Amino acid sequence: MIFGRSERGKPPVEPVTLKILVAGGFGVGKTTLVGAVSEIRPLRTEELLTEAGRPVDDTSGVEGKRTTTVAMDFGRITLREDLVLYLFGTPGQERFWFMWDELSEGALGAVVLADTRRLEDCFAAVDYFERRSIPFLVGVDCFEGADRYPAEAIRQALDLDDGVPLLLCDARDRESVKEILIGVVQHAMAYQADRRQTVTT
């Protein structure tokens, strides 16, 4: 479309907008993921880590981390002319989990980021989406220097249902993150179609 006019006389396309959550433990790469693909300057609500938070902020494995998300990250990506995703990164620390209910309102699905160095940190996010029947996939963020494990071993460690997709990714790489987002949209749409079929039969 050029200056509000569609090409070759086609009517302008009104895009479908979908809300996707990005969740996971503290320091797993949620802010990085949103920033890697957002076509707008991401909205970030990061604050410096302080001495007061040291007793509750476990930085083992992410010792270089200096800030933390206290409300949400927000970004936007156009996957196709007719499909726009709004990305909402959730805060990873337990004391900010009260935000999750608000952020999950109206979400099509979610990405749970996992770090093989701290897999237990994503248990809460997996449990949250399972309990609320929000479709999600697990994206294993392949950090430099992190141990690599077969996908099936990670699936067993997280006790994931067979129907939950698990993909390896790099939260810093735009194309890798796009594959994750396409995966969660496809999974969520298939999940919703299955539920509709179950209701009608």
Automatic annotation (TrEMBL):
The keyword Nucleotide-binding applies. SUPFAM superfamilies: P-loop containing nucleoside triphosphate hydrolases (SSF52540). InterPro entries: Gliding_Motility_GTPase (IPR052705), Gpn (IPR004130), P-loop_NTPase (IPR027417). The keyword Nucleotide-binding applies. Keywords: GTP-binding, Hydrolase, Nucleotide-binding. It comes from the Bacteria. Transmembrane segments: none annotated. Belongs to the GPN-loop GTPase family. This is ATP/GTP-binding protein.
